[in-house]
Amino acid sequence: MASIDRSDPVILGHVLAEHRDLFHLMLAVRSSLAAAGPLPLERREDVLAAMHELRDHLRDHFTQEEQGGFLEESVTRIPRLSAAVQSILGQHPGLLAELDRVIGDLESSPADPGVWARVDRNFASFSAHMTAHERSENAVVQAGYNEDLGLME
Ligand SMILES: [Fe+2]
Ligand SMILES: [Fe+2]
Predict the structure, then answer these.
(1) Spacing, Cα 85 to ligand 1 middle (Å)
(2) What is the number of other CB atoms lying within 10 angstroms of the CB of residue 104?
(3) Residue 19: what are its φ and ψ, rounded to 5°?
(4) How many A from CA of 37 to the centre of ligand 1?
(5) For ion ligand 1, residues whose CB falls within 5 Å
(6) Nearest ligand to the C-alpha atom of residue 85
(7) What is the Rg, in whole angstroms, of the alpha carbon atoms belonging to the chain?
(8) In the chain, N or C: fewer CB atoms in 10 Å?
(9) DSSP E strand stretches across 13-132
């Protein structure tokens, strides 16, 4: 069991590092949107590139989580976390679809004067949903690993 003890900080560190990467990609989109104000059409490609990079990273991150790893391990350790994990994983398709709608909006309405305000607002809303999602994952992993350590004492 000692080896499991030693793996805890590694797993928690990996989760936090992954979530930090996603947070930075979301920030990159926000700052490209902030810079888009005065020259919207010229900046559109930069914003779209940042959004596509985030989208690709997010899909890989979700796939990794769904294929097992820290969430599954948390349930193995503390079975009552199962419902929370199922609910968290169930949010993935909706989050990807929400980001896809923002990207699709920007791609399909280059000449729409209202597009920037709408994209900015909808991306902020997506970011808030993502942040809440990651926070609940962090909480599950922490509960899974901390309680397991507590039981072994
Ligand atoms: Fe997730
Ligand atoms: Fe995550």
Answers:
(1) 9
(2) 11
(3) -70, -30
(4) 32
(5) 65
(6) 1
(7) 18
(8) C
(9) none
